[in-house]
Amino acid sequence: MVQPLSPTAVSKHEAAVAGLDALDLQERTRAVRFIKNNVIGNRTKKEMYLSMGVAARLVEFLFAEDCDVDLRVQVAVVLGSFAYGNDHNIKVLVDAGAITPLLGTLDAPEMKLVEAGARALKAIFQSAEAPHEDVFQASYVESLIRLLTPTTETVGTCSSDRAVPVRVTEVAAGILAKVAVTHDNQMQIARSGAIPLLANVLDARWNASPKVQEAALDALANLCRDNPTISQKVVCCQIYDSAISPIPTIIKLVRDRRPVMRLLAATCLTNIYRAGALPTVYHQDTILTLMPTLIKLFTETAPISTLYGSGWATVQEKAPKVFADLVESSEELQKAALEADAVTKLAAVVIGESAATTVPESNELKAKSRKDAKRRGNKAPPAPAIRVSSCGHAERVTEGFLRAIAAICSLREECRKQVIDAKLLPHIVNAMSHPNRRIRSAACECTRSLSRSVKNLRTSLVDAGVAIPLFKLLSDESDDVQLTASATLCNIVLDFSPMKKTVLENGGVERLVDLAKSMDDRLRLNAVWALKNLLFQADSDTKTRVMQELQWDGLLSLIDDAETGIQEQALNLLRNLACGKEVDIEQVFEGLGEERVLDILEAKLTKSASHDDIVLQALYVIVNVATGNQRHKSAIMNRESILLSVWGFMSHSKSSIRVATIWCIINLTWTDDVGSQERVARLRALGFEPRLQNMMEDLNMDVKDRVKTALTNFGSLIPGSASPGSQDNAPAVPMEIAGSAAGSTVGSAVGIANAGPGPTGGGNGNRSRRGMRGAERDRERLGDFTGASSVVFGSLSDATAPNQDA
Amino acid sequence: MPVTTERAVEGFNTDRKEKTELVAEVPRRVAPEPARLIDRHCCSLFSGSTFTGEQKSGRSSYDVTVEIQHVDMKNSFLCGYLSIKGLTDDWPDLCTFFEGEIIGPKYSFLTRKWDADEDIDVQHWTRFPEFKKFEHDFNRDGFSYDFESNDFIFMRWKEHFLVPDHRIKAISGASFAGFYYIAYQKSTGTITGLYFDRDLLNDATFLFSLGQHHNSEWFQHLSLKHVPSTSFPAFEFR
């Protein structure tokens, strides 16, 4: 609570401001001291002075020739005080040009000026919005790094020779932690030699100064974030040339007595692990130490520092986010987290948080929280240039916990089950319409993780009614929310999801097609992904509907998108369109034009030959088109370049691609299809047959089996050599099973096998079945080889089945 | 290990010296893109594949269709729908959703749940001749069945709820309280299964003691064959 200032008091302050313009140095210094004594710890007076325009004048003093060190120190302290924990004030200081002159103080010969300047800078850079680029000009980074080597003496005794007190090292490390925002920033700081110096202060000899160790961990953590090179550097550097990696020291600090130290050490280790730089020898230790530590910190309400962005933060806000970073891409760690009971702990906080009106927090923080609320109530919204993230502590906690939940169940079905069983879903769905966009996004991310499961899509997600809230988020004001919502929708529109219908009925196709035209690559990717999933096993009506909206030109531009990931999805969409009946293939030929379809395939298989994902999809478009009528098959046969590409990919290192190439050949060569003899002859002329024979011993079983089918179509496979045990072919056929499943086909399958080699092999036995669907034909052919190697289950009740030892 | 995007390592993964790093343009840090969830499947076990056949129960048999919805070999997991025709008069077409545990590094032959003890496990698994070579080893410490290189994949299929309406909990004349022991043969695309349900077994034992039931009729068994397909759509979870 603050009393309104009395008129006399105001005039006193006006006098002080006037004093700043005095010619006399002492008078100026007195005025600055007066202001300093008034503003420290007094928010109202800070704002009053700033509104009187003192910032620019004070900044001038930092480099004015007629100001002495004492005055500059006082000025730096005042500026630091203004900046302390208040984004709006920071903006005023930034506009007054405070950053560069403050950076200039870092090289001052007088340590007390360096310290005051550094503290002011640290306060300014606490605001995420403060521009940090200036730090990377001139040699300011080097100046900061010179401060990272503390001496044991105090500033009082050694100020002249610039001995660095450890508390200044702490401030310098704190600044580096805040300004390492971009990859370039990180690299510049690392190149200037910060890494070993920061690692040095983690050494036990600095254990008496835990604050400097915390700051160093914070800096290292931010330098390592998403940066494999720097993470590697940290792992390989040596604390005081000891030939020991800092990792064991950091692991030790994860067990520190102080919660903030534990959090920061855990963050550091997590970032190194995420970057893929943590040596395997430390993995076990990391899991055993990090996981329980982070989980315990879920309920730790200690403040991280007295200032943080627009207010303050607690360990509890940060720990779940670090936990999320740690486990999000590792199944192994998600399992470890599950075993450490993380879901229960997360659920306790989330459910507690929304049930109780009071947030579980310390009294001190409650007081702060009330003050925050008051402040927000009394004041106009902050200036738009620096947008204060208005979410308070409780909201940041909620967001953090939702992020952790989304991460823990992103990859394992058991984890999803636990999240559902913990009854978290209603809270998640509520949070999807929270006013805070970061909470909406985090909640949507939870739904996304949970929706990677056929079971959940059929049950709990339907019961919780996620479809409509999710659909609304597709048009959210926040891009981030749209992004996670569109990613989630990819799963919701799958064939086995009853919510597919809801999405279609609510204009889902239209909205997705809109998003597929977005300027944002990521949104475009999600949209085309969702449309592709929507067309998985879709009927012709749905296909027509999607193409009416998307248009063939729209599909074409996605197929030729600048992003290869989008090309891949668009080709998969084309693959799904061309899958199924002859009319589906015909629709593709008519829509895109026959020549265009072939041009696309040719281009993808040659120009994108190094992109396995694109090649795979292009090959399956061919596979599916090749199930069509003679015209469809001829179209492919007449493009020799496509056939040669297929030939080339038959020796690809990935078995999935090899399988796809063989299916192309199989579908082009079914012996009772019209024109098959010509196609077989043509492929034989191109050298496909010996190539297939070379693949008979492929290490991949799936490839090997398909190769056999293909060679049978060529009529070149000697029956009986297909697989071991097939010599005694006849009695081994699984009579009971085949009898009911495949009707009378068993007999004719044997017939084919016995028909012997030759271009029309099997033709006789099959002539009457010309009209059969491809699936049935395939079954017959597979019967040649597969029936032989005994399904021993002929009769369960009879333990002496004759084929048992086949 | 977490996957990092190309972009995140671009510019320093090469031999280029520091000077080029300075000019390398990487606008902001790029967080690693989460791993893709591309299905790993196996022969005729893939998302969208169908098996047809029958379930025999005593002297009756019923047409069965199994549609595999999702296969994730990496997690030793698959799931799908199992439809039975004519099992009860009220439900001429009964369809359930099931989840399958693939015996391997993650799931052992020992069930340890669903009312199945070791005796039950042995009693059922040994009905599959292919299992016989593991009969003496399967319970040994450190034993893990290698489903990658063997022709047979063993599984347990557990039905969870009805499709389309998962809210229906009970159906008169049918039960899915038990689970299937399953053997799938890659080379033939055939699936055989044995149903186990503790309550049914108790009833059967009782009837057997009265001489009203033949021993083999305890086992309700499933025989299915893959319905081959020649064209292949694809989806991927996001």
Automatic annotation (TrEMBL), chain A:
InterPro entries xrefs: ARM-like (IPR011989), ARM-type_fold (IPR016024), Armadillo (IPR000225), ARMC8/Vid28 (IPR038739), HEAT (IPR000357)
Name by which UniProt lists this protein: Uncharacterized protein
Domain of life: Eukaryota
Compositional bias per record (Polar residues), positions renumbered to this chain: 797-806
Alphabetically ordered keywords of this record: Cytoplasm, Nucleus, Repeat
PANTHER family: ARMADILLO REPEAT-CONTAINING PROTEIN 8
Natural source organism: Powellomyces hirtus
Record localization: Cytoplasm; Nucleus
GO biological process: proteasome-mediated ubiquitin-dependent protein catabolic process
SMART domains: ARM (SM00185)
Biased composition (Basic residues): 368-378
Entry GO terms, CC: cytoplasm; GID complex; nucleus
Coarse class of the protein's main subcellular location: cytoplasm
ARM repeat feature ranges: 193-223, 507-534
Gene3D superfamilies with a match to the protein in the record: Leucine-rich Repeat Variant
Region: Disordered, residue numbers: 361-384, 750-806
Biased composition (Basic and acidic residues): 773-783
Taxonomic lineage: Eukaryota, Fungi, Fungi incertae sedis, Chytridiomycota, Chytridiomycota incertae sedis
From TrEMBL, chain B:
Coiled-coil intervals: none
GO annotation terms (biological process): negative regulation of gluconeogenesis; proteasome-mediated ubiquitin-dependent protein catabolic process; protein catabolic process in the vacuole; protein targeting to vacuole
Any one Gene Ontology cellular component term annotated for this protein: vacuole
Organism domain of life: Eukaryota
Pfam families assigned: Vac_ImportDeg (PF09783)
InterPro entries from the UniProt entry: GID4/10-like
Secretion signal span: none
UniProt record similarity statement: Belongs to the GID4/VID24 family.
Name used for this protein in its record: Glucose-induced degradation protein 4 homolog
High-level lineage: Eukaryota, Fungi, Fungi incertae sedis, Chytridiomycota, Chytridiomycota incertae sedis
